[in-house]
Design brief:
CATH topology of the largest domain: Peroxisomal Thiolase, Chain A, domain 1
Helix content: 25-40%
Largest sheet: 5 strands, mixed
Number of helices: 11
CATH class of the largest domain: Alpha Beta
Structural class: alpha/beta
Shape: globular
Bound molecules: acetyl coenzyme *A
Number of strands: 13
Order of helices and strands: EEHHEHEHEHEHEEEHEHEHHHEE
CATH superfamily of the largest domain: Thiolase/Chalcone synthase
Length: 330
């Protein structure tokens, strides 16, 4: 076996739609308040795309950003792996639409359906493609338009989610010791109905009945998801650190999935990380599912919190239940 790291995250890029929806705006149509939302979730606003802005378009904006920063052309991309829970269409994949927008004609393109850890699942696949020699340069994307699968009349979910995209160029490791040191992905399908869209798929195809019962929207058992999230994020942190062969106190920055400030705080406490070493932007974007980690990474780079040589722990959980993590020497 070739020793790790095989692959490195050469760059990141991000895109969020301009329109921000504040808690105050939501509380005009829902029985909720800014105070309740901030106290229970840490979220102050989320960005929402227009009808004309597709997931592929958001993904393309983020991808072009990442490609410019890594100085690669569309023709250099061997694979596009895109995590999403809100694809533009059920067929074909959003990754293929992204490929067409970018003109990345040499790539194989496909979606990964793993909800919020979608970016980490995609990163794990990208590393494997590179390690096997199948690909040299992979575009890893997390992109969502959760506003289209959110029930805006359900106060228990409508306050949580937002739209956005993040992308990164992943390529063969070029600097000794720098790159992806470990990845960990796991699922538990027995927990599927804690967070799911009951209708609109092949089991219960879209129909007037599905739409009238609002079963094409996400349904969530919030309290149970919360408990499962805290448990799985803790396991994922431990596994990625163990597999990387590093000590927890060596981690410079924890970049957790941005679902809820209380879940982030519980994860940081478990990992023994002070909040000063945790990337938090949930207040600005809410939960953007698979876009959450790359959006946070992009901000960490822009803010100078992630520099060449930093040791970063990425961790996420989501519907499925799915969870995952990675340790990366930046
Ligand atoms: N505004 C005001 N009151 C509300 C709201 C709201 N928006 N939503 C729920 N409430 C009420 C409830 O009706 C309940 O009232 P009751 O006591 O009279 O019955 C009360 O507030 C408490 O409700 P809980 O659900 O117990 O509140 P909790 O503290 O658990 O917070 C929350 C709810 C924020 C949803 C929390 O459970 C949570 O964050 N869970 C995890 C959700 C998550 O991260 N999901 C994403 C998974 S990732 C993916 O794959 C997309």
């Amino acid at each position: 076996m070739i020793p790790r790291p095989f692959a490195e995250i050469a760059s990141v890029g991000a895109a969020v739609p301009p329109r921000a929806v504040t808690n105050a705006e939501l509380s005009r149509t829902l029985d909720t308040s800014d105070e309740w939302i901030v106290e229970r979730t840490g979220i102050r606003e989320r960005h929402v795309a227009t009808a004309a802005q597709s997931v592929a378009m958001l993904a393309a904006e983020a991808s072009r950003d990442a490609m410019d920063r890594a100085a690669i052309r569309a023709a250099d991309i061997d694979a596009i792996v895109l995590g999403t829970a809100s694809p533009d269409r059920l067929l074909p994949s959003t990754a293929c639409d992204l490929q067409a927008l970018l003109g990345a004609h040499n790539a194989a393109a496909f979606d990964v359906s793993a909800a919020c850890p979608g970016y980490l699942y995609a990163l794990t696949i990208a590393e494997g493609l590179i390690a096997s020699g199948q690909s040299r340069t992979v575009l890893v994307v997390g992109a969502e338009k959760l506003s289209t699968i959110t029930d805006w009349e359900d106060r228990s979910t409508a306050i949580l989610f937002g739209d956005g995209a993040g992308a990164s160029v992943v390529r063969r490791s070029t600097r000794a010791g720098r790159g992806i040191l470990s990845t960990f992905i796991k699922s538990d399908g027995r927990l599927a109905e804690l967070l799911y869209r009951p209708g609109g798929g092949s089991a219960d195809p879209i129909s007037e009945r599905v739409v009238c019962s609002r079963n094409h929207y996400m349904k969530m058992a919030g309290r149970e998801v919360f408990k499962a999230a805290v448990r799985t994020m803790a396991e994922a942190c431990d596994e990625a650190i163990r597999r990387a062969g590093v000590r927890p106190d060596e981690i410079d920055l924890l970049v957790p999935h941005q679902a809820n400030i209380r879940i982030i705080e519980a994860t940081a406490k478990h990992a023994g990380m002070p909040l000063s070493k945790v990337m938090i932007n949930v207040e600005r974007y809410g939960n953007t599912s698979s876009a959450s980690i790359p959006l946070a990474l992009d901000q960490a780079v822009t803010d100078g919190r992630l520099r060449s040589g930093s040791l970063v722990l990425l961790v996420a959980f989501g519907a499925g239940f799915t969870w995952g993590s990675a340790v990366v020497r930046w």
